[in-house]
Design brief:
heterodimer; A: 341 residues; alpha+beta; 9-stranded mixed beta sheet; 3-stranded antiparallel beta sheet; 14 strands; 21% strand; globular; B: 208 residues; alpha/beta; 6-stranded mixed beta sheet; 5-stranded mixed beta sheet; 28% strand
């Protein structure tokens, strides 16, 4: 707190940067938005849960030996009165995985949960980013693919339709696809990680240079370059052969199970890779042309529940409620619809 | 192409950018003939200083943009996709000191730290961190060459095309940090939602 003779100089100096108060006009709109989402989630059989904002740090912290247990890095830690390290949760997926593996230990899957809760993230200085994000999402635990993945994508599209967003799209890829292709081309694990980092960052120039620096067969190289950039309708899943074709079978199967109103929203994105360690298979990102950043994300995390002693396949998504709200306001103003006429 | 809003950098990359857009079939006459106007909605061009291009593209106010690798290195936290090396605007990011005795190395040896002026504080800090040297970074906005001549600093990190300005100011290049060219960048959301026009553009660029 920046103080001047004991009195903060401006009103917002009373609260940490990256946090904010929500006043009635915005609160009413946010509440209307979350009510609509909750209705869709509940109707689909996803019961709302709440977990503590503070957890022990260890299940939330990055785990070098088990990247498949790793979510967003927690940014805020405190000691409790016994010296235990607690952390503010950085997402809801790990807490709900814990909840499902412990509180529902003896209940037969599938388990369906939804949540509306704040997650806490680090921010970059001077960028006006939020430390506290309101997330709305669902987790489907104990359901494999393609059925479970298709169910979650269907609920996702129903929920976005219910918010009133008209032009959203869902990017769908497979986190294991590109690493698998690199492995099949005998790229060593260190180089693989570097190339995947380029792909996550969208550095296609760096990716191309890294691939040219490797001793690859020309057809392997053009496959890796091409797949990284392949995104579009269901036609991009066709016309491949060999291992890639087999890997795409999973995405085709998911697509085949989607109702038309969800299927038409999907953009297949073969270069979409895991942005979080725990994603194992299908991954998705939600876009709206009225907002320059993704408004939500999700995917399969089939290895995470094992962390808590109950290995179950699972899939879910989280929407950034504030971002959905910004996209709705942007659509109202006609943003993202510019054309040169 | 017509479906895309392009952020075009004014300054040294301006002419090269407009030539490129011309060869891609865009009509840039209005942009060339109008120094003061910034926004050309009819052709989908918005002009700005190069360091603002990643800002507009990250927020989605422009779908794609052209800017220097130097800008992207300095603003590495911007969430924009780097689609292509456009080849023009070739420059080098260098560490330079006054010619003759290397004052920076002497400062490092005797004082434990050297002072370095730059418009690229993050690029400079990363370079000296990577090479394990203690450097105090002094950020300046104007002519960096002035800083070592007045004794403000022992060295500079700056972008140079031919090295002429450095030489004329009695400076000599000690290290090359990176080679920088113009890059085509895209907003990550536009990269998915406008995949077709973006890919068509990349194909045209590849074929040039």
């Amino acid at each position: 707190m920046r103080e001047h003779f004991g009195i903060p100089r401006t009103l917002t100096d009373w609260i940490p940067s990256g946090t904010r108060d929500v006043l009635p006009d915005e609160m009413r709109e946010l509440r209307a938005l979350t009510d609509r989402l909750r209705q869709v989630f509940e109707r689909a059989g996803y019961g709302e849960v709440y977990t503590p904002a503070l957890e022990y740090e260890s299940p939330l912290a990055p785990n070098q030996d088990h990247p498949e247990w790793t979510g967003p890095r927690p940014a805020y830690r405190v000691f409790d009165e016994h010296g235990n390290v607690l952390a503010l949760r950085s997402d809801m997926t790990i807490p709900i995985a814990r909840l499902a593996a412990t509180r529902y230990r003896d209940v037969d899957p599938p388990l369906r949960f939804c949540y509306f809760a704040h997650a806490y993230r680090r921010v970059r200085p001077q960028r006006g980013q939020s430390r506290e994000l309101l997330q709305a999402g669902i987790e489907l635990i104990g359901a494999g693919t393609p059925e479970g993945t298709a169910e979650v994508l269907t609920v996702l599209c129903d929920a976005l339709d219910a918010t009133g967003l008209r032009t959203y799209r869902v990017g769908l890829g497979d986190a294991s696809l590109y690493p698998g292709l690199l492995e099949a081309a005998s790229v060593d694990s260190e180089t693989r990680e570097r190339i995947l980092a380029d792909l996550v960052a969208g550095d296609f120039v760096g990716l191309e240079r890294a691939l040219y620096a490797l001793e690859l067969q020309p057809d392997e190289r053009s496959l890796l370059l091409g797949v990284a950039r392949t995104r579009g309708g269901p036609q991009v899943l066709e016309g491949h052969s060999g291992a890639l074709d087999a890997a795409l079978q999973g995405l085709r199967a998911v697509h085949g199970l989607l109702p038309a109103q969800a299927a038409e929203r999907i953009i297949f994105d073969l270069g979409l890779v895991r942005s979080l360690g725990y994603y194992t298979g299908a991954v998705f990102q939600i876009y709206d042309p009225a907002h320059g950043v993704p408004i939500g994300q999700g995917g399969r995390y089939d290895q995470l529940l094992a962390r808590f002693g109950r290995p179950l396949a699972a899939v879910g998504f989280a929407l950034g409620v504030e971002r959905v709200h910004i996209a709705l306001a942007g659509e109202e103003r006609g943003l993202g619809t510019w054309s040169p006429e | 192409m017509t479906e895309l809003m392009v952020a075009v950098p004014r300054g040294t990359l301006f002419a090269g950018s407009l030539d490129l857009l011309d060869s891609l079939g865009l009509d840039t006459d209005a942009v060339r003939s109008n120094e003061r106007k910034l926004l050309f909605l009819e052709v989908g061009i918005v002009t700005m200083r190069p360091s603002d291009v990643p800002t507009y593209v990250e927020a989605g106010a422009a779908d794609i943009g052209i800017t220097g690798k130097d800008v992207l290195m300095e603003q590495s936290e911007r969430e924009v996709y780097e689609l292509a090396d456009l080849g023009f605007g070739h420059c080098r990011m260098v560490f330079a000191t006054t010619a003759g005795e290397d004052r920076a190395t002497e400062a490092l040896r005797r004082l434990g730290v050297m002072r370095v002026a730059t418009k690229y504080p993050r690029v400079a800090a990363n370079h000296f961190r990577r090479t394990a040297r203690q450097a105090e970074i002094v950020e300046v906005k104007g002519s960096v060459e002035l800083a070592p001549l007045t004794g403000l600093v022992e060295g500079i990190v700056d972008l140079t095309a031919t090295g002429t300005t450095l030489r004329e100011n009695g400076l000599t290049i000690r290290e090359e940090i990176a080679v920088c060219t113009a890059r085509l960048i895209a907003n990550p959301v536009a990269h998915r939602l406008k995949a077709k026009p973006i890919d068509a553009l990349l194909e045209q660029i590849d074929a040039l």
